[in-house]
Amino acid sequence: MQRNILLGIGLVVLSGCGADEIASPGTGGNITINNPPASPPPPPPPATAAEATAAADCPFIADPQGLTDRGVISGPTGSYRLCQLPARFNRDSTLAFTAADAAVIYLIDGQVDVGTDGGPAADNSDGLEDTNVTLTIDPGVILAGLDASYLNVNRGNQIQANGTAERPIIFTSQQNVSGDATDTSSGHWGGLILNGRAPITDCLSNTATP
């Protein structure tokens, strides 16, 4: 008799609660689970430049002297055909860009002149005539110098060298190409000289000519 009464009381208590009114102790209602967002995928590795492979021979230039094949040089970025420039360009010429699978480096060895000096006057009143030679360097071309070597553009002649962000024109040294240069290296090549006809006002020599 007593067992039946207790069971009846339990049923009455449960029947007084709806499904929405039953909660686990301490929750205070619905449970919200905030899962952390998924991690983004890692970025792809940067593309690496293809290693250069030396061209089979040197490109053509319009100057009949042509380029001298100095063999192949290898370094951290691959191998290149070394093509030495003539000592003087006497005719309009273009140093052409070649792709990485036919890589060329144009070598400056000693003094390399573009044309012959036309003197201080634009006409021939000084007894010298302009030779009007233009050396064109394509975007992406690499030129390397040896020791004190330099490229000298004489008066009355021109150089056209217009690189791009994607294909810059690079002047460097042969040691840098071969990987023998360091951050403290210097004096590996002489540079690029552009001779013009502007007057010089601070020359200290009384015997200097224009």
Task: Compose a concise summary of this entry.
The chain is mainly β.
Would you spell out the secondary-structure blueprint of this structure?
Blueprint: H1 2-15, E1 68-75, E2 78-84, E3 88-89, E4 93-95, E5 104-108, E6 111-114, E7 134-137, E8 142-145, E9 150-153, E10 158-161, E11 170-173, H2 174-178, E12 191-194
Parallel strand pairs: 2-5, 3-6, 4-7, 5-8, 6-9, 7-10, 8-11, 9-12
Antiparallel strand pairs: 1-2
Q: Can you give a write-up of this model?
A:
By secondary structure, the protein is mainly β. It has a domain at 68-194. Helix content is 9%, strand content 25%. The protein has two helices and twelve strands, in the order H-E-E-E-E-E-E-E-E-E-E-E-H-E. It has helices at 2-15, 174-178; strands at 68-75, 78-84, 88-89, 93-95, 104-108, 111-114, 134-137, 142-145, 150-153, 158-161, 170-173, 191-194. A five-stranded mixed beta sheet has the order 1-2-5-8-11. Mean pLDDT is 84; it is low at 2-17.
